Amino acid sequence: MNLLYAALCTLIVNLPFGYWRGGVKKFSRNWFLAVHLPIPLIIAFRYLFHLGFALYTYPVMVGSFFLGQWLGAFYRKKKSAKLNPQ
Questions:
Q1: What is this structure's pTM?
Q2: Rounded to the nearest 10 degrees, how much is the dihedral formed by the CA atoms of 49, 5, 22, 25?
Q3: DSSP code for 51
């Protein structure tokens, strides 16, 4: 159950970072920061939820990290398309 809570927190934390990442040039300094700044928080979640660094936790945590990033960027893209119809 702790893994599920940690994954959910990871997903939620990554939503604004994914939103930010979706609005900057790929591989720029800001893009790099948007991808890497949440990592210390994810490590803190691992300790907070007593997960440690067991191998079985990596697919779930990495998946929730990238899903949060993707959903944030997806929301930005949809919002931008709605505001600027072509």
A1: 0.90
A2: 20
A3: -
Alpha helices in 1-86 (DSSP H): 2-21, 29-36, 39-48, 58-83
Q: Which residues contact 17 (CB under 8 A, 6 or more apart)?
A: 34, 35, 37, 38, 68, 69, 72
How many alpha carbons lie under 13 Å from residue 27 in its C-beta half-sphere?
A: 0
Reported confidence tier of residue 64, pLDDT bands at 50, 70, 90: very high
The structural domain count of the chain equals 1
Distance CA 6, CA 44 (A): 10
Contact indicator for 51, 2 with CB cutoff of 8 Å: yes
**Integer Rg of the chain from CA:** 14
| Structural domain containing residue 29 | 2-83
Q: State pLDDT tens for residues 12-49.
A: 999 999 999 999 999 999 999 999 999 999 999 999 99
